[in-house]
Amino acid sequence: xxxxxxxxxxxxxxxxxxxxxxxxxxxxxxxxxxxxxxxxxxxxxxxxxxxxxxxxxxxxxxxxxxxxxxxxxxxxxxxxxxxxxxxxxxxxxxxxxxxxxxxxxxxxxxxxxxxxx
Length: 117
Hints:
Elements lengths: L12 H12 L3 E3 L1 H6 L4 E6 L5 H10 L4 E3 L3 H8 L6 E5 L2 H14 L10
């Protein structure tokens, strides 16, 4: 059984172990406008579960890469140190591939399945 955070949400230990390396390699991007601008360089986007349904629909139409709905904004702050962030992008590369694989094992397949162009 996977461990639980303080908010009783499921976490991916493998993903959390990769987080410091992704930060050091500058593979994690924050900010809606920045992610939209760099959307062709993204391996996947991570949307928090506390994001509004309207925002999810709007962003799903923009990003053609896999979208993972996991964690809360408090978890993102704990893991990455970004306050009040509900949307993270991960640049293409081996670290992002490993992170996506870890998230899929824990939370199931991402939406949609085709990679970014």
